[in-house]
Amino acid sequence: MKQYLADLHIHTCLSPCGSLEMSPSEIVRRSLAKGLDAIAITDHNTTLQCPEIQSLGERFGLRVFAGVEVTTREEAHCLVYFPTDEHPQHTQGISAIISGCSAFTSRRFVPCFIASVTSKVNVVRPTG
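Predicted structure:
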């Protein structure tokens, strides 16, 4: 079985914790230099960098998943991944996802979510 090396929690310069050096081209360059097969862009409460990095990744052979690290009303941080290349780029779509995540943040597990553009949120519980 083929194994893949991936980093599924990368911030760009748009996140408060990101650095100015984390431009789309630099993220792709560093990921390929580390031998990664795939990455996920998970900026805080925005998906604005995802299309650019996905385009660069496609050009250079790196699979880039769109995601977002949402901050819920309870100040919990939840990673949300989009199963297709469609993802909300507007505040209203992100707000709907934040509302969907808030319902689960009081649980005893760290939630990870798979969301669709229609704002349907499914919880993925960790195994083990």
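Summary: Confidence is low (pLDDT under 50) at residues 105-111, 116-128.
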